[in-house]
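User: Could you go from structure to sequence for me? I need the amino acid at each position, not a summary. C-alpha cells:
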C-alpha cells in the first residue's frame, strides 16, 4: 500500500454494550384520514405515554416519528384515545385522536439481529436492528430538542441571516456505523436553518425587511408582499394569545383590514374579527388594518381568521427551503469551527464543565442518562477512537513545457507558470448590464487586467471586438447586437464577458439561456462588487475558467494510477442528481459528465429531468446519457474506451442496492447497445463504479499537533481504510479520503464505496491514488478539492438546469413556491427543457 502510515483521531465512539433485550415492533395509525404532521405526532405519542396511559407504556416505547414504535415489553393491540395537549378536555373538544397500535408480523428485533450488522449481513432483520439502535441513541435528545431524526438543535449562540426571517442554530448529529466486529456511533457538530420565532408581526416585518407595521396593511392578495408572507407562514406552527397552550397551524393569510373581516360562527349572527375579540376577550386590536392568519383547514364550518398581532411563531421549526446564494457566507462563517474546537465540542458539548442553562452537553455525555438506553442495556464509551491511516504521496501538477509544481497543504501557486495548453481569445465581446455602477473606465480597466493575467498564463488575448451595454430586461436584444457585430455568426465568437449588478440572478439566467441554449456562445459572468474589488488573484481565477471553457487544459496531474489507465483509451465519468426544495412540485435533475482526452482533464456534460425527489437516475435517461458519452468519445478518438471509471455522487447507503440493480445495469446495457448498434469488434470496456459520499459526518483529527497542517487539520492526502471504521457489507471495499485542506474550519473527507470493480481488479490502493489525483484537476482552482473533479462537475451541471428553460415561461426549477404536489406533470417540464447548443456542447460550459 502506498503512503506513510499515520494514526488519527475520529469523531466516532464505541458502543461497548449493544441491546440485550428483544424489542417488539408496532405499527400506529389514527382514525383520521392520515396521521397529523410530524411535530403533532411526537406530541401525541409523548402524551400517550406520559399522561394518557402511563401504566400501559412503562417502560416507555421508542418512536421513529412515522408509523413505527418499538417496545421492550408486549403491548396489547387496540385503540387509545389521546389529546394533543389536555387529556382532561371535554370529549367533544377539538384535539382528540384515536390512535390504533398493532403488532407487526415477524418484525421483532433480537440481539442476534444487531450482531448481524457487524458481519455485513444485510437483510430485513439487520436493517430493522440498525434503525432500532439509531432510535435508542437519539430518542432522549429528540424528545427535548427540535430535530431531524439524526440531528438535534439548540438556540444557544444562534445567528440571524441578514435580510431573512431565518436563524441558524447549532446542534449535534448522531449516526450508527457498523464496522467489522463492532458498532460505532459517529457524533458531529452540525447546523440547521430555523424559522425565526417570536411575535408574528415582528417576523412578518423581518420577512419584508421592513420596520413599520403599516407595511402589513396589505389589501391585495396578488401583491408580491402578500405572496412572500404567505409562502413564509404557510404550514408553520403558532400560538395564539387567546387559546392557552394549544398549537395551531397556519393554513393561509387573508388581506387586511383584518379587524373588519366578517364571519359567522356556527349558528350565531355575523360579526367582525375586531368586534369578536373586543366582546369575547376584551382585546382591542392595535393594528386592525393588517393582514390576518387563517388557522382553519379544509372542511371547517367557517374560516377562522386571527389578527397577526395576537400570534407568536413557535421556535424550533426547521427551514427546509433552499437558502439564497447571498446567505452562503453567513452560513459558512457560522458553521466553521477550528478542528480542535470541533473535537472538544464533540467530546464535551458547548460548555467547558457542567452544562449551564441553554448550553448543550455532547450526546456522548448524555447517553448514560437516557432512559431508553438504560432500558436497552446499552453503554457507549466516552472516548473518541484512534484509527490507522496513510498519507498518500501528493501528485505533481504539470504546466507548460512539462514544468512540475508540487502542492503544499492542498494548494499551489501558478505565478511564473504557463498553462499546460493555453487557448487564444481573439474574437470576444464585452457586455455591461450595470453601466450605472460600472462606468466605461472601470469596464476598460477590468478588461485590460483580465487580458494581462491571461497573457501571463500563456493565452493570447486581443482587444474585444464588440462592447455593448443595456438593461437586464433587454438581454436577448443586446446579445443579438453582439452577434451582429460578428457578422451574424455566433459560432465565430470565442467568448462574451458579461458584467452584472450585485443581485442579478434573473439577468444571469437570461444571459445563460440565450448564450448556452439559443446562440451557442461561451460566456463568463462577473458581478459588480467583485469587479470593483478585483485583484490579480481574482483575474487569475477568471482566466483559469476562460481557458478551460475555451477548450484548453490548465494543468495535468502526474499520478502512477493515471499513467496506468493511459496505457489504453479510458473514460472518467461523474454523475449526480439534484432535487427541488421540499414541498415544491418541480423535477429533479440528473447529470452525467465524462472525460474525452487522454489526461482525464477535459469533460463534456449532459443533463436530464426526472420525477421529483427520485435519487436513482431514471434508467432510460442514464442509458441515453452514457450512450452519448461513449459515442462522442469514439467519434473524437476513432477508438472505443477500454475502461470506464464511474463516480456517482450523492447516494445514501440505503440506496446502494438500487444503484447496483438499476444504475450499474443501465450503464452496462448502454455499453451493450452502443457495441451492437455500431457493430464494434473491440472488447467492451471494463467498468469500475464508485459512490462518493459527502454527508457521512465522519471527521479526522491529527493525533499530534505536529502532524496537522497550518489550520490544525489532517494534511491533504489522508486515506483511511482501516477495518475498524469501514463497513463490512461492501465486499469490494470502502475508504475515506481527505483530499483537500480547508481554508477555514474543519476539513471533511469523502467516503468512497466500491460497488463494482473490473478496472483495478480489487487493487483499492490504485483507486485511492486515482481519486486523489482527480481532486487536483478541478479547472476553477489552484487547490485540491474535496471530491474528484468529475463529481464536482456533475454537481455544477445539475445546477445549470434552470438555464435550459426559456425564462419567459412560467417554469422555474429553482423556485421555492410550495405546493401540495398535485398537478405535477413531468412532460410539461421535459417539453420545455432545451438541450445545450451544439456549438458549445463539447466545451466545459458548466464551469
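Assistant: Here is the amino acid at each position, in order:
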Amino acid at each position: 500500500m502506498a503512503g506513510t502510515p499515520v494514526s488519527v483521531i475520529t469523531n466516532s465512539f464505541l458502543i461497548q454494550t449493544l441491546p440485550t433485550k428483544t424489542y417488539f415492533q408496532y405499527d400506529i395509525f389514527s382514525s383520521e384520514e392520515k396521521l397529523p404532521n410530524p411535530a403533532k405526532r411526537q406530541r401525541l405519542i409523548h402524551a400517550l405515554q406520559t399522561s394518557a396511559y402511563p401504566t400501559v407504556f412503562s417502560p416507555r416505547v421508542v418512536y421513529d416519528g412515522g408509523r413505527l414504535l418499538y417496545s421492550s415489553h408486549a403491548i396489547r393491540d387496540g385503540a387509545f384515545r389521546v389529546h394533543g395537549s389536555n387529556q382532561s378536555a371535554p370529549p367533544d373538544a377539538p384535539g382528540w385522536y384515536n390512535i390504533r397500535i398493532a403488532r407487526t408480523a415477524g418484525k421483532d428485533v433480537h440481539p442476534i439481529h444487531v450482531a448481524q450488522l457487524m458481519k455485513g449481513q444485510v437483510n430485513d432483520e439487520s436493517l430493522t436492528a440498525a434503525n432500532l439502535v439509531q432510535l435508542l441513541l437519539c430518542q432522549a435528545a429528540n424528545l427535548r430538542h427540535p430535530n431531524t431524526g439524526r440531528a438535534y438543535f439548540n438556540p444557544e449562540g444562534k445567528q440571524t441571516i441578514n435580510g431573512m426571517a431565518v436563524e441558524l442554530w447549532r446542534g449535534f448529529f448522531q449516526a450508527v456505523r457498523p464496522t467489522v466486529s463492532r458498532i460505532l456511533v459517529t457524533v458531529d457538530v452540525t447546523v440547521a436553518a430555523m424559522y425565526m420565532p417570536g411575535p408574528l408581526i415582528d417576523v412578518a416585518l423581518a420577512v419584508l425587511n421592513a420596520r413599520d407595521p403599516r407595511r402589513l396593511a396589505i389589501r391585495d392578495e396578488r401583491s408580491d408582499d402578500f405572496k412572500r408572507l404567505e409562502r413564509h407562514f404557510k404550514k408553520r406552527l403558532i400560538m395564539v394569545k387567546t387559546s392557552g397552550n394549544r398549537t395551531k397551524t397556519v393554513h393561509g393569510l387573508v388581506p387586511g383590514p383584518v379587524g373588519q373581516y366578517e364571519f359567522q360562527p356556527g349558528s350565531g349572527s355575523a360579526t367582525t374579527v375586531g368586534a369578536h375579540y373586543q366582546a369575547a376577550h376584551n382585546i382591542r386590536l392595535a393594528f386592525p388594518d393588517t393582514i390576518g392568519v387563517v388557522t382553519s383547514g379544509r372542511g371547517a364550518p367557517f374560516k377562522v381568521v386571527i389578527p397577526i398581532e395576537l400570534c407568536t411563531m413557535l421556535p424550533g421549526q426547521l427551514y427546509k427551503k433552499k437558502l439564497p446564494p447571498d446567505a452562503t457566507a453567513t452560513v459558512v462563517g457560522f458553521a466553521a469551527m477550528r478542528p480542535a474546537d470541533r473535537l472538544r465540542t464533540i467530546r464535551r458539548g458547548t460548555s467547558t464543565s457542567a452544562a449551564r442553562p441553554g448550553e448543550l452537553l455532547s450526546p456522548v455525555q448524555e447517553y448514560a442518562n437516557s432512559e431508553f438506553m438504560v432500558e436497552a442495556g446499552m453503554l457507549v464509551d466516552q472516548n473518541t477512537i484512534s484509527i490507522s491511516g496513510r498519507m498518500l504521496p501528493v501528485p505533481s501538477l504539470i504546466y507548460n513545457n512539462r514544468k512540475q509544481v508540487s502542492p503544499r497543504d492542498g494548494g499551489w501557486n501558478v505565478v511564473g507558470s504557463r498553462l499546460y495548453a493555453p487557448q487564444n481569445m481573439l474574437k470576444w465581446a464585452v457586455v455591461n448590464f450595470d453601466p450605472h455602477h460600472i462606468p466605461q473606465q472601470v469596464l476598460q480597466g477590468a478588461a485590460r487586467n483580465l487580458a494581462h493575467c491571461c497573457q501571463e498564463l500563456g493565452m493570447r488575448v486581443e482587444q474585444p471586438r464588440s462592447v455593448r451595454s443595456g438593461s437586464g430586461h433587454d438581454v436577448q436584444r443586446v446579445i443579438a447586437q453582439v452577434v451582429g457585430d460578428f457578422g451574424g455568426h455566433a459560432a465565430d465568437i470565442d467568448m462574451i464577458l458579461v458584467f452584472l449588478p450585485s443581485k442579478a440572478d434573473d439577468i444571469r439566467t437570461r444571459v445563460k439561456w440565450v448564450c448556452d441554449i439559443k446562440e451557442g456562445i461561451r460566456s463568463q459572468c462577473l458581478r459588480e462588487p467583485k469587479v470593483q474589488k478585483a485583484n490579480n488573484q481574482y483575474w487569475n481565477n477568471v482566466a483559469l475558467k476562460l481557458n478551460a471553457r475555451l477548450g484548453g487544459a490548465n494543468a495535468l496531474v502526474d499520478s502512477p494510477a493515471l499513467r496506468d489507465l493511459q496505457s489504453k483509451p479510458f473514460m472518467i465519468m461523474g454523475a449526480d442528481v439534484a432535487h427541488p426544495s421540499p414541498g415544491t412540485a418541480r423535477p429533479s435533475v440528473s447529470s452525467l459528465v465524462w472525460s474525452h482526452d487522454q489526461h482525464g482533464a477535459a469533460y463534456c456534460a449532459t443533463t436530464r429531468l426526472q420525477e421529483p425527489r427520485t435519487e436513482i437516475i431514471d434508467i432510460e435517461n442514464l442509458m441515453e446519457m452514457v450512450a452519448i458519452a461513449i459515442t462522442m468519445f469514439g467519434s473524437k478518438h476513432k477508438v472505443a474506451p477500454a475502461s470506464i471509471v464511474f463516480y456517482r455522487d450523492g447516494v445514501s447507503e440505503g440506496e446502494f442496492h438500487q444503484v447496483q440493480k438499476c444504475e450499474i445495469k443501465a450503464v452496462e446495457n448502454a455499453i451493450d447497445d452502443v457495441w451492437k448498434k455500431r457493430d464494434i469488434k473491440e472488447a467492451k470496456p471494463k467498468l469500475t463504479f464508485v459512490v462518493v459520499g459527502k454527508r457521512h459526518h465522519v471527521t479526522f483529527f491529527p493525533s499530534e499537533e505536529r502532524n496537522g497542517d497550518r489550520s490544525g487539520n489532517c494534511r491533504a492526502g489522508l486515506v483511511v481504510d482501516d477495518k475498524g471504521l469501514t463497513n463490512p457489507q461492501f465486499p469490494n471495499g470502502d475508504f475515506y479520503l481527505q483530499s483537500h485542506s480547508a481554508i477555514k474550519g474543519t476539513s471533511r473527507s469523502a467516503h468512497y464505496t466500491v460497488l463494482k470493480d473490473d478496472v483495478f481488479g480489487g487493487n483499492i490502493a490504485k483507486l485511492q491514488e486515482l481519486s486523489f489525483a482527480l481532486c487536483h484537476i478541478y479547472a476553477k482552482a489552484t487547490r485540491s478539492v474535496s471530491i474528484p473533479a468529475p463529481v464536482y462537475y456533475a454537481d455544477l451541471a445539475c445546477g445549470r438546469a434552470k438555464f435550459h428553460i426559456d425564462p419567459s415561461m412560467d417554469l422555474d426549477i429553482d423556485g421555492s413556491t410550495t405546493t401540495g404536489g398535485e398537478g405535477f406533470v413531468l412532460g410539461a417540464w421535459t417539453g420545455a427543457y432545451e438541450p445545450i447548443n451544439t456549438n458549445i456542447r463539447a466545451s466545459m460550459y458548466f464551469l
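One structural detail worth keeping in mind: Residues 422-549 form a domain with the Rossmann fold fold (CATH 3.40.50.2300).
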